[in-house]
């Protein structure tokens, strides 16, 4: 049976790689061992027999292939009075090397595949937990987020350190005191992060929503080729609608501004499209820290049908995938349309500040999802 190793106690600083002095600690009721042995028939049976002689109960076993042999991870409940040093010596007497002994938690003994999938689900729902999930999957002591330029992947510390690129700008650095990372574990972590990359990329892909009147609309990222459709959207909008969006008395949209609307610096645009007609436009602009700025414009003929709600809900999903947990919008005095739209989208808007700024919190438990009907 393959089990997921329990998390070790996090250490503030990493000592020299194993082996080190083995503690005479018998307080833990569950231990995790990593035993390196030659890949010969009967070797594991000999270790199991020696464990039985020492009255140790084997709770779980994972076989990790390594160069020149195998690395068996065994979780045991030791006999009362048995020390870690005595156990290591008994394993050495069988011609094997015990490369690590660490305290474990019997509550962590679950199927490795199920544990990894569960961890991946948590990270997909909340990308800010990437480091936490990677720490769990690798049973690492510590996982830190650093700029990619500072990750230094060549610095392995004898296998006790591993660096993983995340999004082209940052990296996750994992460290583990009790045992070096083996290739199978690193491959599992790479596959997990690859899944996160795919999910993050797909979040910005097209999505379909159904309005209150039954009309189906497509929400997709804006591109420079959408300039004519966005220009036509502005031509159909009333002066009041344009004022609420741009807070000026403009009546038409200068064509030289269209590219900046569709491809804003550092941000993105989101279009609501019905057939070939652009009926709504949203923008997401990263701000400081976890805050992102948003704006909405909806064709007068499509207002109060859920288009704005669909756009805002989708922008919140995209913002969450990029690590933002608060949205900022401008709410003019006496106009609470964006406030009500945020409430309908499942968000948590605060009352507007005196300057007209509206903070909209994205619930931490789960990212908003676009419902089927608005």
From TrEMBL:
What highest taxon heads this organism's lineage? Bacteria
Q: Which UniProt keywords apply?
A: Transferase
Q: Does the keyword Transferase apply?
A: yes
Q: Name one GO molecular function term.
A: acyltransferase activity, transferring groups other than amino-acyl groups
What range(s) does the N-acetyltransferase domain occupy?
217-365
InterPro entries, per this entry? ACT-like_dom_sf, ACT_dom, Acyl_CoA_acyltransferase, GNAT_dom
Positions of the ACT domain: 32-114
Record protein name field: GNAT family N-acetyltransferase
Q: What is the protein's species of origin?
A: Amycolatopsis acidiphila
């Amino acid at each position: 049976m393959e089990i997921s190793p329990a998390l070790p106690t996090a250490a503030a600083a990493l000592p020299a790689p194993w082996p080190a002095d083995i503690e005479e600690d018998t307080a833990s009721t569950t231990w995790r061992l990593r035993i390196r042995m030659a890949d010969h028939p009967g070797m594991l049976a000999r270790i199991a027999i020696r464990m039985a002689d020492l009255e140790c109960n084997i709770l779980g076993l994972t076989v990790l292939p390594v160069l020149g042999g195998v690395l068996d991870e065994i979780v045991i409940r030791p006999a009362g009075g048995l020390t870690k040093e005595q156990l290591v010596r008994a394993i050495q007497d069988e011609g094997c090397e015990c490369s690590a002994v660490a305290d474990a938690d019997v509550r962590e003994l679950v199927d490795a595949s199920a544990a990894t999938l569960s961890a991946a689900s948590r990270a997909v729902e909340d990308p800010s937990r990437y480091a936490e999930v990677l720490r769990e999957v690798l049973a690492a002591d510590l996982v830190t987020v650093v700029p990619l330029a500072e990750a230094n992947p060549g610095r392995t510390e004898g296998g006790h350190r591993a660096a993983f690129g995340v999004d082209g700008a940052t990296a996750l650095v994992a460290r583990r005191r009790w045992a070096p990372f083996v290739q199978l574990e690193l491959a599992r972590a790479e596959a997990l992060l690859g899944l996160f990359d795919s999910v993050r990329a797909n979040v910005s892909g097209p999505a379909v929503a159904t309005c209150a009147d039954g009309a189906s609309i497509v929400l997709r990222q804006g591109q420079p080729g959408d300039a004519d459709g966005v220009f036509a959207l502005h031509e159909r909008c009333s002066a009041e609608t344009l004022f609420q969006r741009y807070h000026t008395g403009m009546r038409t949209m200068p064509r030289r501004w269209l590219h900046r609307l569709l491809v804003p610096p550092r941000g993105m645009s989101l279009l609501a499209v019905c057939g070939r007609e652009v009926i709504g436009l949203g923008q997401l602009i990263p701000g400081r820290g976890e805050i992102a700025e948003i704006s909405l414009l909806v064709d007068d003929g499509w207002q109060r049908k859920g288009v704005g709600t669909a756009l805002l809900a989708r922008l919140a999903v995209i913002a969450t995938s990029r690590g933002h947990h608060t949205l900022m919008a401008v709410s003019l005095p006496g106009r609470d349309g964006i406030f009500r739209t945020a409430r309908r989208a499942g968000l948590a808007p605060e009352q507007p500040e005196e300057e007209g700024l509206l903070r909209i919190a994205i619930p931490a438990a789960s990212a908003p999802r676009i419902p089927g009907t608005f």
